[in-house]
Design goal:
The complex is a heterodimer.
Chain A: H1 3-42, H2 51-56, E1 60-61, E2 68-69, H3 72-103, H4 106-121, H5 124-143, H6 151-175, H7 179-187, H8 192-203, H9 205-221, H10 224-229, H11 247-254, H12 263-292
Antiparallel strand pairs in A: 1-2
Chain B: H1 2-15, H2 24-33, H3 43-82, H4 88-92, E1 95-96, E2 101-102, H5 105-136, H6 141-155, H7 158-172, H8 179-203, H9 207-215, H10 220-249, H11 252-255, H12 277-287, H13 295-326
Antiparallel strand pairs in B: 1-2
Helix pairs in contact in B: 3-13, 5-8, 5-10, 6-8, 7-8, 8-10, 9-10, 10-13, 12-13
Classes of the chains: A mainly alpha, B mainly alpha.
């Protein structure tokens, strides 16, 4: 092979490598563009209201005159719905993960893993529809409340959307616990449950925490479920059976009627900004936890 | 503390002679002799420990079953209520009488266009990103940042993707509310899914394939193009099926970018808005003039949508299982 073609070959390889690097880097580009466009379309609202009044104002009346752009009730609703759904989804998701990874026989696992995957694949609009036509009337009759479309119903539906996320990531974490640890514990006479509780769960705690954070991040950003099921009242709830209006629901419901580049339109983009920053924080924390306590073999325990 | 304890046990465990007792009784006795042990592990407490275990395991099984029941319940409910609505007319006609009668053909076509369009955007892009991440990148800050970016992109709420699509594709690029805007938005949304599955497919290609090719004098790119990609392609295909199903069920991202309440025509170009199954369900169930009267249509549309989405997922699951058996 001549000298010149070898150099040609090397240059070509470098160009190809650069091409793939640039392509992989576009993910960051897209993320920054999302941030940029949210800010460009959202910042103008702060000419009308201050950041403090926007975040902590108690009245969301974007269409009355003069309009009020206080998103505090929406913020509270989002946080309440997410926390309540976490109360349901964390035990359910982690327990399912432990069951699949440590307790179930291989055949049961083969059968059950697709169930979790299919649950994850259910379109959110279908879950929202189910919450509207099945769960809402049931809750209304059962508890004799004004409306079944409320915080609790939304949290319940959201829980079933975040369980698959929590379950599959936790399961991976549990699987990555080195086998020697488990065997050592069993050899010492600990029961399987004691081994799970004292050895496997502590060893996979960082993975499980990541799973929980990502599950909650999914719940806070989920739109269709809260749009259809949460009830839509922009009030601070005083019970879990009150209708609420979380942030994504407000954006989705009002964008169609908001005049293009009017105050309302800017306010909705600003809500999008808040929502984006929330999920960004969740994801960065999840990433930090996953890397900080990364489990590499038995030696790091 | 617990972690430390676990390590100590594992070390003592490895030092135990090969003939160490294996039955529970034997271990109990040996534990009693052990000075570290708190002692007092009587047979009664052993029984109690095993009862605790059975109880807790039962609870865990119930947790897993709840998920199964939830899936069965939702799918079963929609099947029971939806199958009556589905017939040839329903699948082959446009909605009539302000969407209170007729079919959902435009929605099916819209959803198919949007999800395949999203895949045309995301598949090459995602596969190329995965090739960089798995074949070229070396561990370091650049890789860390890119991974963080992809993870964050995966975590962006779909309604925020919708806002981005509205501000960027619809308004700034002047594409309007159209199939193209929707497909591009959905493409960005499913990108992390494609990258993840493509990377997994690359990971499953044995290193010996690459080494053999490189040893024969092929360059890195020749190795990737001729050896690695063909071997990883079936796995990538599975990922693209999952991506399509994700895009097909997505609502919030297309609300402002591609979907409309009703359009009498089928789209004739990429710049036309479309109707879509998920948005149609939402509209009929919440904003229609006769919500109760159109219930059968809502059930029918939901059933078609989950049939489509779960069907594609099942295909992907079976296909993946077959690939794993072959490997």
């Amino acid at each position: 092979m001549s000298h010149s073609t070898a150099i040609g070959r090397r240059t070509r390889e470098q160009i190809i490598r650069a091409f793939f690097f640039v392509t992989a880097f576009t993910s960051i580009l897209v993320l920054s563009m999302i941030l940029l466009f949210l800010f460009v379309e959202g910042i103008p609202i702060f000419k009308t209201v201050s950041v403090g009044r926007f975040l902590f104002g108690h009245d969301w009346y974007p269409t009355s005159s003069p309009p009020d752009f206080g998103i505090f009730p929406l913020l509270v609703a989002s946080i309440a719905v997410t926390l309540l759904s976490a109360v349901i989804s964390i035990p359910l998701g982690v327990m399912t993960a432990v069951y699949l990874a440590e307790i179930a026989t291989a055949r049961v696992r083969e059968l059950f893993k697709p169930v979790v995957e299919l649950l994850a694949a259910l379109p959110s609009v279908v879950i929202g529809f189910f919450g509207m036509v099945v769960v809402a009337p049931f809750l209304q009759d059962m508890l004799d409340i004004a409306t079944g479309l409320n915080l609790f119903n939304a949290a319940l539906m959201l829980a079933f959307m975040s369980v698959p996320t929590i379950c599959s990531i936790s399961e991976d974490a549990i699987h990555s616990v080195p086998g020697e640890l488990k065997e050592a514990s069993l050899a010492l006479g600990a029961t399987r449950w004691e081994t799970i509780m004292r050895v496997i769960l502590p060893a996979s705690l960082s993975g499980i925490s990541t799973a929980v954070i990502l599950g909650m991040s999914r719940a806070i950003g989920e739109t269709m479920v809260v749009l259809m099921v949460a009830g839509g009242a922009a009030l601070i709830p005083n019970s879990i059976f009150k209708p609420v209006r979380p942030m994504p629901a407000s954006i989705a419901a009002e964008m169609a009627e908001a005049p293009f580049r009017g105050e309302h339109y800017y306010a909705l983009f600003a809500i999008g900004m808040v929502l984006f920053l929330f999920t960004l924080c969740f994801n960065i924390v999840a990433d930090y936890v996953a890397h900080k306590h990364k489990q590499v073999g038995a030696a790091t325990l | 503390m617990t972690r430390m304890k676990a390590m100590d046990y594992s070390q003592t465990g490895t030092r135990r002679p090969a003939g160490a007792p294996t039955s529970t009784g034997g271990i109990r006795r040996s534990n009693r002799k052990n000075e570290d042990c708190e002692g007092a592990w009587s047979p009664v407490s052993t029984r109690k420990r095993h009862w605790t275990q059975s109880g807790v395991f039962g609870l865990f099984r119930v947790a897993a079953l709840i998920n199964g029941f939830a899936l069965l319940f939702i799918v079963g409910f929609l099947l029971l209520n939806g199958w009556k609505a589905i017939n040839w007319t329903f699948l082959s006609q446009a909605p009539m009488d302000s969407m209170t009668r007729g079919g959902i053909l435009p929605c099916i076509i819209g959803t198919v266009l949007l999800s395949f369009g999203a895949m045309v955007v995301a598949f090459p892009w995602g596969v190329a990103s995965a090739i960089y991440l798995h074949e070229y990148a070396k561990p370091g800050p650049a890789l860390r940042v890119i991974r963080l970016g992809i993870n964050n992109l995966a975590g962006v709420p779909s309604v925020v993707f919708g806002l981005f699509g509205l501000a960027f594709f619809v308004t700034w690029c002047k594409l309007g509310v159209s199939v193209l805007s929707g497909a591009l938005t959905l493409g960005a949304l499913v990108l992390p899914v494609i990258i993840g599955t493509a990377e997994e497919a690359l990971r499953s290609v044995p290193a010996t394939y690459r080494e053999a090719s490189l040893a024969l004098g092929a360059t890195k790119w020749q190795t990737i193009y001729r050896v690695v990609l063909p071997a990883a392609f079936p796995g990538m295909l599975t990922g693209s099926i999952l991506g399509i199903s994700r895009a097909a069920g997505e609502t919030a991202a297309i609300m402002f970018t591609a979907a409309v309440f009703f359009t009498p025509h089928l789209p004739s170009s990429l710049f036309d808005p479309v109707m879509a199954l998920p948005y149609h369900i939402y509209v009929l169930a919440t904003a229609g003039t006769q919500i109760e009267a159109t219930r059968p249509l809502q059930y029918g549309t939901s059933l078609v949508l989950i049939g489509l989405v779960l069907g594609m997922n099942l295909i992907a699951i079976f296909y993946r299982a077959r690939l794993q058996r072959q490997a």
